[in-house]
Design goal:
The chain has helices at 11-31, 48-58, 60-77, 84-98, 110-138, 143-179. By secondary structure, the chain is mostly helical. It has a single domain (11-179), classed as Arp2/3 complex 21 kDa subunit ARPC3 (Orthogonal Bundle), CATH 1.10.1760. Helix 1 runs antiparallel to helix 2 and helix 1 (11-31) runs parallel beside helix 3. The radius of gyration is 16 Å and the shape is globular. The mean pLDDT is 91.
């Protein structure tokens, strides 16, 4: 997994980005029907853990592609249209989380799992803050609404699912990879 440069961009990253985007988009669509309480257009999205996993496993470019395209796909499947700032925010979430790739050696090691979760939470903060603050200009909301009606529920919801589901995905991936001799 980590035999290449963190910033390498080639066919491998495009393929993994496309797979991650498809999974993120479809899984997002499946849960977009569950809005978070007291949140403006923010939904419960366990699929964020899939995005953070792909970013952690395959790097920042994969995270950026999977987040941007996957969010666009999920919103399109839900009939919501294209909101570039939320798609870019999801892409930034994946990009930042993907910076951990070079430092992960073993997807089963507690320390490496904690690193991936930490970078994932940082990515969630950066991506959702970007999307929430740009909503002020795109949707005409005030700073209070951006921070407490959009960012806070999106950050907390995405963080909870990442803390719970990312370790499960990493351990399962390591088990499958070890059986396949990778």
């Amino acid at each position: 997994m980590n035999d290449k440069s963190t910033w390498e961009f080639g066919t491998r990253q495009v393929v993994y980005g496309a797979i991650g985007a498809a999974l993120y988009g479809v899984f997002s669509w499946a849960t977009n029907i569950f809005p978070l309480p007291a949140a403006g257009n923010v939904t419960f999205r366990p699929a964020v853990a899939v995005l953070i996993f792909f970013a952690s496993a395959y790097g920042p470019w994969v995270g950026l592609l999977a987040g941007f395209i996957g969010n666009t796909l999920g919103d399109a499947l839900s009939g919501w249209g294209f909101y570039w700032h939320w798609s870019l925010g999801n892409g930034l979430m994946g990009l930042v989380a993907g910076l951990v790739m070079a430092s992960i050696k073993d997807f089963r090691a507690r320390g490496d799992i904690m690193k991936a979760v930490g970078y994932g939470v940082a990515g969630i903060a950066v991506g959702m803050l970007f999307a929430s603050l740009t909503e002020m200009f795109m949707g005409g909301i005030d700073l209070n609404t951006a921070l407490f009606g959009y960012f806070t529920p999106a950050f907390l919801g995405n963080t909870v699912v990442t803390v719970i589901l990312l370790p499960v995905l990493m351990i399962a991936f390591a088990a499958v990879a070890s059986r396949r001799g990778r």
